[in-house]
Design brief:
By secondary structure, the protein is mainly alpha-helical. It has 16 helices and no strands. The protein starts with a helix and ends with a helix.
Length: about 425
C-alpha cells in the first residue's frame, strides 16, 4: 500500500477516500433498492425485473464501450506529461465520441426491441418496459462518461458528490413506489427516473469543475492530440468490452430465461450481484484508482510501471481475501436477513461467485497495466478465448442443470479470465 500512495501521498489518500465514499453510497442504495424490490415483487416477478436490469447494464456498457477507459487513459497521460491543454482537448474529443456512440446504440437497441421484444422476455409487461429501460440506458451512459472523465483528472471528489446526492434520490423513488403498491412497471419507471437524476447531476457537476474552454474543441484544432492512438485504443477497448459482456455480464441470465424459470433468474441475479458488490466494497475502491495511476505513470516515467503493477497486485490480493472469507462464513445469514427465506437458493450462488470474483478483482491490476500501456491486443486475445469457453459452458451446463449449471459456468468464466489476465 505504501508504494501505491507514496507517489502523491495525501492526494492519493484523498482519492481513495472519495472513491470509497462513492462506492459505498452506490452500494448501500443499490442493496436497499434490491431488497425492497425483491421483497415486494417475489421471486417470479423479480426474475423479470432482473432480466430488464441486465438489459440496461449491457446497454450502458455498449454505449460507453471503450470511450470511458480512453478518456481516463489519455487525460491521465496528458496530466502526467504536464500538458493541461492536451488533457482538455482529449476531453472534447471523447465527449463528442460519446454522444455519437450513445445515439447509435440507442437506435440499434430500439430497433432490436421492435423486432425481438416478444423473445426478449417471457413477460408481456416486461416487453413494454424495455422502452422505459432504454431511456435509463442513455442516462446512465452519460453519467458513466462524466464520472470516467473526472477520474482521468483524478477528481474523485466529484464522483462522491454525485453519488452522495443521486443515490439517496434513487432510493427515495423506489421507496415511494413500494409504499404506493408498485408493480414491476412502477419499479422500472423509478429506475429510469433515478438514472435521469444521475445523468443531470454528473453533467452539471463536471461542467462546473472545468472552465468553459475545456469542451467543444474541433478535431482540426487538436494539434498534438494523438488521434490515431485514441481511435486505436477505443477500437481495441470496444472489443474488450464486447467480450466482457459475454464473460462477466451474466450472460447466464439469458440462458436461464431460455432453459429455466424466472425464479432461478432471480436467485442467480441476487447471488451474482451481491458477490460483485462485495468485491466493490474494498478491492473495487482501489481498482478504480489503478488505470488513471498507470496511465499517468506511463506518461511521466514508464520505468516505474513494473513496480507499480507488482505492488498493485499484492495490494488487491490482500484486500480480496478477507472479503471472500467473510462472505463464505456469513452468506446464509446475509441472504436470509436481506431477502427472506424465499430467496434461500441464492446462498449457493453468492458463495461460489464471490470466490470466483476475487480472481477478477486481483486481475484488475493486470488489465489496468495493459490498458494504460497500449497493450489492448493481448487483452482481446485473452478474452476472446475465455468468451468462447464461457458461452459453451453456459449452453451445455444451464441446459442440463439450470441454476447449478449457471453457477458453475459463471464461476468458471470469471476464474479463467482473471487467471489468464494475470
Amino acid at each position: 500500500m505504501a508504494t501505491l500512495v507514496s507517489e502523491r501521498g495525501g492526494a492519493a489518500l484523498g482519492n481513495t477516500m472519495f472513491s470509497s465514499l462513492a462506492v459505498y453510497a452506490e452500494y448501500a442504495a443499490g442493496l436497499a433498492i434490491s431488497m425492497i424490490v425483491a421483497r415486494t415483487l417475489g421471486p417470479t416477478a423479480f426474475g423479470t425485473y432482473t432480466l430488464l436490469m441486465w438489459f440496461a447494464s449491457v446497454g450502458v456498457v455498449l454505449a460507453n464501450h471503450g470511450i470511458t477507459t480512453g478518456v481516463m487513459k489519455f487525460i491521465g497521460e496528458a496530466r502526467g506529461q504536464g500538458d493541461s491543454t492536451l488533457a482538455r482537448r482529449a476531453l472534447g474529443h471523447f465527449e463528442r465520441m460519446q454522444l455519437r456512440s450513445c445515439v447509435a446504440v440507442c437506435l440499434v437497441l430500439g430497433l432490436a426491441i421492435l423486432l425481438l421484444s416478444r423473445r426478449a422476455t417471457s413477460d408481456v409487461e416486461g416487453q413494454r418496459l424495455l422502452w422505459v429501460v432504454l431511456v435509463a440506458v442513455a442516462a446512465r451512459a452519460c453519467f458513466v462518461f462524466y464520472v470516467s472523465a473526472a477520474k482521468g483528472f483524478e477528481n474523485f471528489r466529484l464522483t462522491a458528490r454525485v453519488q452522495g446526492v443521486a443515490a439517496p434520490i434513487g432510493l427515495a423513488l423506489v421507496v415511494i413506489a413500494a409504499r404506493g403498491g408498485a408493480t414491476l412497471s412502477g419499479f422500472v419507471v423509478a429506475y429510469a427516473l433515478g438514472s435521469l437524476v444521475y445523468a443531470v447531476l454528473s453533467r452539471v457537476a463536471f461542467s462546473r469543475s472545468l472552465s468553459a474552454s475545456t469542451r467543444y474543441e474541433h478535431d482540426a484544432e487538436l494539434g498534438a492530440l494523438p488521434v490515431v492512438r485514441m481511435r486505436r485504443h477505443v477500437a481495441f477497448a470496444s472489443a474488450i468490452v464486447l467480450l466482457e459482456v459475454l464473460v462477466l455480464r451474466q450472460t447466464e441470465v439469458l440462458f436461464l430465461e431460455q432453459y429455466s424459470t424466472s425464479q432461478n433468474i432471480a436467485f442467480y441475479g441476487i447471488g451474482r450481484s451481491l458477490a460483485s458488490s462485495a468485491m466493490l466494497l474494498i478491492p473495487g475502491v482501489a481498482a478504480a484508482l489503478l488505470l488513471p495511476m498507470m496511465s499517468r505513470t506511463f506518461g511521466a516515467d514508464p520505468a516505474l510501471l513494473g513496480a507499480r503493477f507488482l505492488a498493485a497486485t499484492r495490494y488487491m490480493l490482500l484486500l480480496a481475501v478477507p472479503v471472500v472469507v467473510a462472505g463464505e462464513v456469513f452468506a446464509a445469514d446475509v441472504i436470509t436477513a436481506l431477502y427472506g427465506a424465499a430467496y434461500a437458493p441464492a446462498i449457493l450462488v453468492f458463495r461460489i461467485t464471490l470466490a470466483a470474483s476475487a480472481v477478477g478483482a486481483v486481475s484488475a491490476s493486470a488489465s489496468s497495466y495493459q490498458l494504460g500501456t497500449d497493450r489492448q491486443p493481448a487483452i482481446v486475445a485473452t478474452m476472446t478465448g475465455t468468451a468462447v469457453i464461457t458461452l459453451l459452458l453456459d449452453f451445455i451446463l444451464i441446459r442440463a442443470y439450470q441454476l447449478n449449471g449457471a453457477i458453475a459456468a459463471g464461476a468458471a468464466g470469471s476464474v479463467l479470465l482473471g487467471a489468464a489476465l494475470l
